[in-house]
Amino acid sequence: MALDALLVKCRQVPQQLADALREAGRATGLAFGSITIHAALPGTGTYAYAWLAAPALNANDYLARFSGALQRESALSSVEVEVLPLELLMDLSGASVREAAPFHYVVEAGVDAEHESEFNAWYDAEHLPGLAAVAGCVRARRLRVLETLETRSIYLTCYALVSSGVLKSEAWLAARRTSWSDRVRPTFRDTKRTVFQTISSTRTGAARSGN
User: Fold this and answer.
1) How would DSSP label each residue in 88-130?
2) How confident is the model at residue 151 (pLDDT cuts 50, 70, 90)?
3) I need a surface site. Which of 17, 47, 98, 127 has the fewest CB within 10 A?
């Protein structure tokens, strides 16, 4: 299982967050290709993704060291953060790949082991390609948290969108209304759906293609 990105969650947007992530990465021996920061709409909450320039193994070791280094950064000294290690499972260009994507939509869901095979098959074969093909979707990615909650795995699906209105478009809603979706969606556990506005996206080095 490869570590492709670190997701840092915090309640607000600390000043110099990208710099703090970059410095914590250097202290940990991780080279980030890009860092993107998104603020939740409405309310509070920030998701910052530090994408590795190349996949890394030993995710748990890197996670512990990175979390410790991040806590020592002065910009985050009074900020409560949660760090999640992520493995990239699928990365699709959207129908509007050439357009800017100021909005970031995330679906977080757990799935129990007995339903995981069909959950992944549905996402890979139907759901993610179907939503990526909707006008207004710039990019669609599936990730898995490299930690498990007892017998449950946690997945994130991230959509880069030209507008939050894409989520209410007839094409988007139609892609969600399928018989396979109706069978799989009830197996989701602790589902969380959040719309964010992208507030910064910076390349920090030799990024992998698309990151």
Assistant:
1) EEEEEE-TTTTS---EEEEEEEEEEGGGHHHHHHHIIIIIHHH
2) low
3) 98
Asked whether the beta carbons of 52 and 66 are under 8 A apart, the reply is: no
User: What residue spans of the chain are helical by DSSP H?
Assistant: 17-28, 59-71, 116-122, 128-132, 170-176, 179-184
CA 120 – CA 155 distance, rounded (Å): 10
> What is the model's pTM?
0.92
Q: What is the pLDDT of residues 72-88, one digit of tens each?
A: 887 787 788 899 999 99
- pLDDT 10s digits, 23-50: 999 999 999 999 999 999 987 799 999 9
CATH ID of 3-203, from 3.20.20.140, 3.40.50.980, 3.30.70.100, 1.10.40.30: 3.30.70.100
